[in-house]
Structure formats: structure tokens, C-alpha cells
Amino acid sequence: MAGRESEPSPVALFDASYGNFETEVQGAVRRGAFGEDIGQNSWLTADEWRRYLGRLELSASTALLDVASGGGGPAICAAVETGSRVVGVDAHAAGIATAGKLAARNRVEERTKFIECDASQRLPFEAASFDAITCIDSIHHFADRRAVLAEWRRILKPGGRILYTDPILVTGSLSNKEIFIRSSLGFFMFTPPGINEQWLAEAGFDLVGQEDATENMAQVARRWRETRAENREKLLELEGAETFEGQQRFFETTSALAAERRLSRFAFHATLRA
Questions:
Q1: Is the pLDDT of residue 79 over 50?
Q2: Is 234 helix (H, G, I), strand (E, B) or coil?
Q3: What DSSP state is assigned to residue 42?
Q4: How does residue 17 score in pLDDT terms, banded at 50, 70 and 90?
Q5: Residue 1, pLDDT score
Q6: What is the pLDDT confidence band of residue 19, given thresholds at 50, 70 and 90?
Q7: 95: left (phi over 0), alpha (psi -120 to 50) or beta
Q8: Cα 24 vs. chain centroid, distance in angstroms?
Q9: Can you tell me whether residue 64 is helix, strand or coil?
Q10: Superfamily of domain 13-272 in the CATH hierarchy
């Protein structure tokens, strides 16, 4: 009887990234992974983000909520490039601290605010507070997506818009080892094709469009791993061997699964139903 594969130890990707965000080596890794560094920590490229922002019709008179805002880079980019007021929420204290520093550096403190909170729970905002909500490559960390979408509906203004990416759509066969490696960053909700459309409709949203962004994930994951390998010694000093190797396995697995279309990433754009 074959021995059972053990689950990998949790990988401290977010704490390692946010805690060392301003180091030279992390900046080099972001540039290598994404090309243009806007302070992102997902599969998001700057071109992709600008395209998404364009769909949300943001301006100086609008308010955007960025859910799971991480180190705040994309949220600050949105404030700078659209003039919109932007609030970011994230569960990681180091990410919120980093976002505050970036906002000051970009001189958008008056139009941005970052709050540490668990976005899977009721959010600390009044009803109809926002014109738009984004959540990039993080919605799979929430166990009850129906409840999250219902909360977004509560805090959106009439006709409000949402755009989120789901990078954990199962579109092929996955082994238990591959699933373990992909979920080594914490809780992951793997979903089948069609479920996002169903849950959006049930929550009172009309789907405007969706985009297959799997290739972006495959390429970013590959470049991320390669750039980290080039900077191995410096990263080992910052992260330690266990975290470094765990992240390398994560990026290698993600790149392979996305390239083979066994795990897909899609962006969903929807509006609050009248």
C-alpha cells in the first residue's frame, strides 16, 4: 500500500513579501515577475490592472474599495491614475503598514485609506458607500463567497460595479500533491467553471463580461520563480530556506498547471442589478 503524501508546511508568502517590501531584492523580484512594478503581489500586471480600472468608470467623484489590498500598490495606482477615492482592506498588518508608506510616498494620503480587517466578515462601512469594488486574486481565500458577494451588494451604491479575478478555477485534473502545494499559502476555495456566474446572479449582480487571464498567471508565475532563483542568496537571508523553497514550489506548480490549462484564472466584471 502506497504511503500517503503529507501536506506541505504553510508558506509565509504574504508576510515575507510585505515585511520585506522595500528591500532592493524584493523590488528586483517584482520587476522581473511583472515588468512594471506597481507594488502588486498577485498575478496582476500593470497593463492588466489599467484595463480593469477602465471598465469601472472611475473618476474624482467615485469611491473604490479594493478588497485584499495587500501592500496597497494597485489601490494607490488606481488613486493616482483615476483620481478616485480608494479604500483598501486586508487582514495582514504588515500589508496595511506598507500601504500607508506607499500612499505617503505617492502623495495620495488624502484620497486613500487602508484598514486592517477580515474581509470575509461584515465590513466596517455603511450601506451604499462605494461606486466600485475590486478583489484581485484573493476571492478564493474566502470560505463563503455567497456571503462575501452579499456584503459587497450591501455596501455598493445603486448601479455599482465589481471586478474580481478567480485564479483557482479547476479546468483539468489535479493530483492531491498539486492541490496541497497550491493551498500551502492558507485556505483556498477551488471552484468549477460556471459557479462564479451562478453565485453572482444569486447575489443580485448582472455579469457584464469575463476574461480568460490564465496565460497571465502562467507567465507571471514562471518569471517570478526564475527571478527569485536568480536572487536566491539574498532571498535566503531574508526568508530562510523553508519559506524560500516553499515559495519556489508554489510558483513552479502554478506555472505548470496554468500552462497546461488544468488550473485557470478568470476575471469577472458585473454590475449591481437595479
A1: yes
A2: helix
A3: S
A4: low
A5: 34
A6: low
A7: alpha
A8: 23
A9: strand
A10: Vaccinia Virus protein VP39 (3.40.50.150)
Q: Mean per-residue pLDDT for 261-273?
A: 97
CA angle 212/217/220 to nearest 5° reads 140
Return the C-alpha cell found at 223.
Answer: 518569471
First to last CA, the chain: 58
CA atoms within 13 A on the CB side of 49: 28
Helix orientation angle between 73-82 and 46-55, rounded to the nearest 10 degrees:
50
Contacts 24+ apart (CB under 8 A), 31-37: 31/227, 32/223, 32/224, 32/226, 32/227, 32/230, 33/220, 33/223, 33/224, 33/227, 34/220, 34/223, 37/73
Q: Which amino acid is at 38?
A: I
Q: Is the pTM of this model over 0.85?
A: yes
Please give the Cα distance from 96 to 99 (Å, whole number): 5
SS3 129: coil
106-123 per-position pLDDT tens digit:
999 999 999 999 999 999
Residue with the bigger pLDDT between 71 and 6: it is 71
Q: pLDDT tens, 181-205?
A: 988 888 999 999 999 999 999 999 9
CB 164 within 8 A of CB 136: yes
Tell me the C-alpha distance between 5 and 122, whole Å: 37
Of 127, 120, 167, 164, nearest to 146 by C-alpha is 120
- The backbone torsions φ and ψ at residue 83, rounded to the nearest 5 degrees and listed phi first, read 80, 0
Task: Give the strand order in the sheet containing 156-170.
Answer: 112-116, 85-90, 63-67, 130-135, 156-170, 263-272, 205-212
Average pLDDT of the residues of the chain: 92
Grid coordinates belonging to 38: 506597481
What is the DSSP code string of 132-175? EEEE-S-GGG-S-HHHHHHHHHHHEEEEEEEEEEEEEEE-S---
